[in-house]
TrEMBL record:
This is protein-tyrosine-phosphatase. Belongs to the metallo-dependent hydrolases superfamily. CpsB/CapC family. The keyword Hydrolase applies. It is an enzyme of class 3 (hydrolase). Its EC number is 3.1.3.48. It comes from the Bacteria.
Length: 245
């Protein structure tokens, strides 16, 4: 887990170069609610490189009611981005996985022989509904683990239905699910309640990964400003699990 240190004003330096990798973003043009052009993707990656990131694993949505993405179209888009970044002289390394929404289609994929797009270490980035909790979340996580994957829950601080009983987060972590908080959640971008929960999760050592969840250039601009303003928190040591993902 990440051991984060807050000072009294919670305005200390965030050194993203010590993390190096971002495991959650939407940088393949035109296939989900993320970037829509190659030029925007390249601009975002240029700025992320300047922030200190050396490795990006971009994660388009696979949400069958909205974004019917497949490994084929995701990896084709990845090659287009790699070529554009190479042409621009960027050195940041770019891979692709996916952010899987837990729905019927995901369960079909999990129980089929279809390849799933994973983060390093066979980590599977998953997303829950925002409005209504799934009745079988623990069973779904168990199924993911039983299939040989490590589940990583995207932005747990944004599932407000968990707020009435925050102990659910510890139960998820104890059950083998890693948790990834969004940087912008800490700034209040999604609202004060979500910011407070993100900080609570960090202070209680329940977060393994810090991600950008960048969908557009404005998100990266905001992270750049937070970083230059010494706004959020410090990363005082190298977490071996994170560095070696």
């Amino acid at each position: 887990m990440l051991n984060w240190i807050f000072n009294k004003k919670e305005r200390v330096h965030l050194d993203l170069s010590r993390i190096g990798i971002d495991i959650h973003s939407h940088l393949i043009p035109g296939i989900d609610d993320g970037v829509q052009t190659i030029s925007e993707a390249v601009s975002m990656l240029r700025e992320m490189q300047s922030l200190g990131y050396s490795h990006i694993v971009t994660t388009p949505h696979i949400m069958w009611d909205c974004y019917k993405n497949t490994p084929e179209n995701i990896l084709t888009g990845l090659q287009d981005i790699r070529k554009a970044c190479e042409d621009e002289g960027l050195t940041i390394h770019i891979d692709a996985a996916a952010e899987y929404f837990i729905d019927e289609h995901f369960n079909e994929l999990l129980n089929s022989s279809a390849p799933l797009l994973t983060l390093p270490g066979k980590r599977l980035l998953i997303e829950l509904p925002y409005s209504t909790p799934l009745m079988n979340t623990p069973e779904t996580l168990f199924s993911i683990i039983a299939k040989g994957y490590q589940p990583v829950l995207a932005h747990p601080e944004r599932y407000t239905y968990f707020f009435s009983d925050p102990s659910i987060y510890k139960r998820l972590a104890d059950g083998g699910c890693e948790l990834q908080v969004n940087i912008l959640s800490l700034s209040g971008y999604y609202g004060a309640n979500i910011a407070n929960m993100a900080k609570w999760l960090l202070k209680n050592d329940l977060i393994t990964f810090l991600g950008t969840d960048a969908h557009r250039i404005q998100h990266v601009d905001m992270i750049q400003k937070l970083n230059s303003d010494n706004w959020i928190l410090t990363y005082p040591f190298q977490n071996e699990k994170l560095i070696n993902i």
